[in-house]
Amino acid sequence: MFPEKAEMDLQQVVHSNFTGVSSFETDIDDKRVHLYCHWRLNEHMSPTDAPSAAVDIKSVPCSTLDLFFTPISFWLREKTLTSRSRASDRYTVNRHAADDAHSLSDNKSPIWPEASQTEAFRFVQDAIKKNVDGYGSCITAVKLLLPAVNGYVVRNDIVQRRFLTCQLAEKVIDFTTPGRHIQAFIYHREFVFQNALDTAIGAIHLKRLPGVDRGLVECAMNSLEADIKARLSFPWIVGKPLPRKRLALVDGKSYPDVSTAPLGIYRAAKALGVELVVLDYEGHWAQDPTAGQWRDEFIACDLTLGKDLPDRIVDSLSWSKGPIHSITTYSDKLLPATARAAEMMGLFTSPPEAMDICHDKRRTREFAPSACAQILSVKGVQDLQEQLASLISPLKYPLIVKPITGYSSEGVTKVLSEAELLDAVRRNEQTFPGIDNLIEPYISGPEVDANFILLDGELIWSEINDDFPSSAENFQKSSSKRSEISSSSTLPSQFSTPAPVPPSKSFAELSTIIPSILPESEIAQLRSSLTETLLRLGFKNGVFHLEARVQGSKMKYTMTNNGMELKPSQSETSKTADPSVFLIEINPRVPGHQETFAVEYTYGIDYFAMHMLAALSASAPALHTEDDIALKTIIRSLSHPLPEHCQYPTHIVFIPLDRGGTLVTVKPPPQQLMQYVSESLVFMQRGEVCKDPDKEGKWPFVAYFQVVAKLNGVEGRAQARTIGEMVRESFDYVME
Fold first, then answer.
1. What is the DSSP letter of 623?
2. Among 79, 155, 169, 627, which is most exposed with the fewest C-beta within 10 angstroms?
3. Considering the entire predicted model, what is its pTM?
């Protein structure tokens, strides 16, 4: 490691316009290394005092400084530095670069004395050490991001989050803090390094390339520069910071270092500078003083569901050490109570009545009825038998049975006969006592997840993704025959084709792929119909996760040579009815954390951050204060997606429980496949006892894997889908 106070001797030797060459020495462990640094300043826009919000959104509000560090020689350090003159102790590793030394002055004068403690300086040091350590001779290439405008960064990890899928980056880092005012970089011939290190707001370390061919490295840096222009061409430096806000979070979730689910919530709050006031049970991990890095305050509160829960929330918050600007939750079951508590405190919230409708699948169906008329709500088997006896016309199968309040497809069953219908209702009556069942037609069109962001009643972002058929819908019989891969360009040759997933009664999710490949006309129809439903419910601000099917779609799921995929329907030419949208459910919150993470990888949109920002934003125009305008400017900034050529398809692979017993062990996928997995988690612990899911009607997840393609477009989808199924097949768990 470098010493805390590293000594670096550097001098400016050549300067021509916006390029130059410098020489410096630094200590790496027991060696002293002599390096050349070729540098180049790249400007994307003229520096200005105006914040980037006032600049064309296609501009990049930063410049970059390329640094190419080439090791020239090194020598072992002794107690004195006289060894520098010993030829036997000094080794030249780049003869060609050393030949340029005639242009160097012998008067070595240290610079960067003040910058030596900056984060940017330490990042450069670490990058050099990583490449040079062990007598390495490769070139170290680093890009420093320099602000071209004055202002405030919308979140202090914006560069890292926008470069999650950059394949050229070894490491990406931000050097800002929430609320810190940044000054535009000003170019001075004599102080390029000093000013760059003082003002840098981020940096990217290029992946290591072999040898010392600077032409090859420069080519890679040019590609990285193009990636910067693509990923950062939006107003992420704004004129005013996010106002100081304290947000009450009802249900603090699990510890972020243990479960991936809450990590996105707390990471977003830290990056935005939002102060979280966590409400949860006594003894929750967030109550511990060591949890201060994640929250500003913890208040114990009994969150047991009940009519008085809103009162308990309000009473708990009355003990807060500071003002509460809004209340939110990421928990389905707590949404109605949280909204009522906010209303009681006079804070902005979505209508509690709308939350109640979304929480109840029967009321959701009544609010957004389909063209299908056969809808029943029953309390149990006896009620069902009485209603069946009074029907004018018999029910038409297949039908779906599900609890009117439920989560994660629990209790959802597809039935083909009256006997199966009675059995499904009987099982739910036992498993979910006191909860009514909704019976409705099964719609066979492609299912989608639709995620929307509303701001003041305007749809500012939406995306649709494909939710593949569950085991209960997969009528294809399991087969031991393996298919051939149609294109070697999408899949490494050492991988074999996955086997199909065997069918079962489970409606638990198996695969979600982002983005959808439904026809654009059907995507537009989904967007229009579902947005209209949200607005009719009275929603104005927030993140919304909806599930729907396209009835009469021009595409259907088909078993192909590469597995299950959406393909044009063969009967399309004989259709007369236009496609229609069948709403399944509305969730006035972010999608599950697996999908939320996947959306950020594909599009660069962080739903965790948008959810809390939307909760803090008032919707009435009369309440548009200066602070509210600043907040909504940041919301609009963070709703800019990555450009299409940077959108890599993502496949979320769910592994639902398929048998009961005691978990003995799990076998993870091989590393050849895991290199494509950006996020994963095994939910169950060794020794955990699991009930038979077919008997319980509950199919909890054993694990999930997020596969990110390294290609984009059609090839990327094929790659993500195929490798995802190989991950599913290679993962195994043993029960006894």
1. G
2. 79
3. 0.88
